[in-house]
Amino acid sequence: MRDRATLCWCALLSFVACVCLPPGPARATAAPEQLFSQAGAAMGTTFTVYLYSNDPMQASACLDAAFEEIERVEEALSNYRPTSELSRINRDAAKEDVTTDPEVFHFLEI
């Protein structure tokens, strides 16, 4: 399960990077790229997001988007948060049928 969680995080961060960063040719004509990073904690671990950008404002926006998505996923799937959807399912499923949203259901199916 740990490998699957790592794969999910990598896919999530790759998606955010693809959405936020311009395609290669646009970067070639702009100012030199710099490395930006931001660290955080989620799902019981500490992680750092690294990205290259020639635009500090765009880098900041991408990092913000990545951390917003991480927060959204953690609120749904973290077994470390008693308020998460996954924790609710675990808590209530032994007592009654449980309904959840399609995204969480799909994750649990996988």
Overview of the structural elements:
With 110 residues, this protein is an alpha+beta fold. The protein has helices spanning 2-20, 24-28, 56-77, 85-92, 102-109, and strands at residues 34-42, 45-53. The chain has one domain. It is 56% helix and 16% strand. Helix 1 (2-20) packs antiparallel against helix 3. The longest helix has 22 residues, at 56-77. The model has no long low-confidence stretch (mean pLDDT 83).
Outline: elongated
Quaternary assembly: single chain
**How many strand elements?**
2
Poorly predicted runs of 5 or more residues: none
Strand arrangement within the widest β-sheet reads 1-2
Main beta sheet: 2 strands, antiparallel
Helical residue percent band: 55-70%
Distance N terminus to C terminus? Answer: 11 Å
Query: What is the typical, i.e. mean, pLDDT?
Result: 83
Number of separate structural domains = 1
Amount of beta strand: 15-25%
The radius of gyration computed from the alpha-carbon positions, rounded to a whole number of angstroms, is 17 Å
Specify the number of helices: 5
How do the strands and helices of this protein lay out in sequence?
Blueprint: H1 2-20, H2 24-28, E1 34-42, E2 45-53, H3 56-77, H4 85-92, H5 102-109
Antiparallel strand pairs: 1-2
Helix pairs in contact: 1-3
Features:
two-stranded antiparallel sheet; 110 residues; elongated; 5 helices; 56% helix; alpha+beta
Task: Write a concise synopsis of the structure shown.
With about 110 residues, this protein is α+β, with helices and mostly antiparallel strands.
